[in-house]
Predict the 3D structure of the following.
Amino acid sequence: MPGKARTHRLRIGRFSEPGRVYLITAVCADRHAWFGALDHGRCVVQALREVEGVATTLCFVVMPDHVHWLMQLEDGELSRTVQKLKGSATRRIGQLRGRPCRIWQPGFHDRALRRKEDLQAVARYVVANPLRAGLVGNLGDYPLWDAAWLE
């Protein structure tokens, strides 16, 4: 199974560095559009708030079948932080539905940003995902995003 071996190697190579900024992408199992339902998407937003202290959210966008999260790792390990986010969102959605459910595909994609990268430019790219996907014509019409630079 070449796919599993490749995924395993990526996990082995993952490095957690407190203070480092990471761009995380977590995808729903089978690309099911769990977060197309606003109440399910809001469960992810609430879960993002729960990881504050371990990670500082710089921006996020919850797309129908995946999440992009620009965050600064404050404490702990990257994998555990993402696991906490995914677990909390899954529990919340399960409570709404009245039964357990499988939301996420295993693992996640991460990219550590270079210290000199323009974080606001990366954030603008992240939150513009609903526009590029044709979900809305104006970002203000999309309810499941936020960025630290908003006043």
Remarks:
- The first strand starts at residue 21 and ends at 27.
- DSSP finds five helices and five strands in the chain.
